[in-house]
Amino acid sequence: MSGIRSSFLLPLLAVLSSSVSATTLVGAPPCPDAYGIHAYAHPESCNSYFLCTNGTLTLEHCENGLLFDGKGSVHNHCNYYWAVDCGHRKADLTPVSSPGCEHQFGLYPDSETCSTTYVKCIYGEPHQAHCDAGLAYDPKTHTCVWPDQLLPYCNPEVIVGFKCPHKVPARSPAAKFWPFPRFPVPGDCGRLITCVDGHPRLLTCGDGKLFDSVSLSCLEPDELPHCANSL
């Protein structure tokens, strides 16, 4: 008798399971092909999204502190909530807090004063992160910016370690770049200092080039053999 019951129950459970799955995925777009990974916005919830993995469609949910926008690069196709435009989709921003973290995923100031470090929360665990050299953390934009963009909150001279002169000698290499005079970083061919409105900014040449402390120009590495170890 038990075998007969099982033979009826198994198909019934399969039907129920299929029914729940179909109900859950109402409004989901079909997978475009049988291969690859594709993520799609949920029509109503900014916290959820549809995921096609090699033709299999599933309903996924962003971690606390994250939302879906189709450009997610923080964790599993999701971005920090303050960087997502949900449009008409509803977003649940209720925090799930832990020591040092308001949300399970997020970026937060490391202190109440100007700082070159910040806190990055991953699964509710706080980790100290560092801005690139010469930058300071902006709690309003959640990014690292030039310290002179955070006046008077930040002191650019302290962050960069350089004080811009009020004027430079006429016909000097620095004068050629006025009103944004350049200066070398002692012992560092990879970076330079430029002054913007009297405040220092630490820069790099980019494009694989190095900074020449004599001409104050960015040159190809083979033109500066003494800087061979700076790349």
TrEMBL record:
The keyword Transcription does not apply. Pfam families: CBM_14. InterPro entries: Chitin-bd_dom (IPR002557), Chitin-bd_dom_sf (IPR036508), Chitin_bind-dev_reg (IPR051940). Residues 28-88, 98-156, 161-229 form the Chitin-binding type-2 domain. Coiled coil: none annotated. Residues 1-22 form the signal peptide. GO terms for cellular component: extracellular region. It comes from the Eukaryota. SUPFAM superfamilies: Invertebrate chitin-binding proteins. Keywords: Chitin-binding, Disulfide bond, Glycoprotein, Repeat, Signal. This is Chitin-binding type-2 domain-containing protein.
